[in-house]
Amino acid sequence: MKKIIVPTDFSKTADNALEYALLFASHHGIEVIIHHAFETSYSHPSIPVKSYPMANDEVRTRLKELQLSIQSDPRFSSLLLQTHAMLGGFVDTLSELVKKTHADMVVMGTKGAGPVKGTLLGSNAVDVINHLSLPTLIIPKEAKFKPIDKIMFATDHHMMKKPDALIPLKEVAKMFHAEVTLVNVRDRHQKTTLVELHEHDRESTWLGEDIPHSSEAVLDDDVLHGLQTYIENHQELSMIAMVARQHNIVERMWNGGNTRRMAFYSTIPLLALHE
Question: CA 241, CA 154: separation in Å to the nearest integer?
């Protein structure tokens, strides 16, 4: 892992996610790229972007101040850091920046309402999970950085298309010498199929012998409730990882995917992976 992008709207929630990202990256030679998307209250196709100096200058000034503040902190004196202010929608500009910088991961907060007009960071966490194929580490407002030593990987044992989805999880586990627990929530009345057993073995194999890992089954009729109960009983967890699977539009409208629901209720950082 070489580069991570951290969106900001200058809110307290975004600041907290940024501090987490800085501490996450500081001891591992990872470059931090701070991203801010802004939109003006008035625009016209015939007017070039450079004709919006007030909003542009305000954002760039704030980003420069933020960069200087970080670089003056002894904890981050050797950290590679860059900032980008981009005119346009949040997800569109973030996607553009990912392609431009070849970033490996996005780290962002769950909610936010910045002081600069026209900025958003709230449901954008959900939008990033849904529209970007990059792994996304979501930092709840109350979460503080601590050494990552125990990671819960919530798995449904559905067939994964390829093991590449677990690469970011393996990288984080190796960086921090963390132990990974594969947790599967299943209906207490449902029998385990041979396909599920095979997929469990595949997931364990993909993690490899160099990643300490174990497996646990949770019996609960509701997946989210089962995961929440497990988390409550394992306060030592420092990160949760899930695969953000694509669901049909009706299911999304009804209750959303498990990864998106967890993003709003968890107090532990959530790593959303993509197949």
Answer: 6
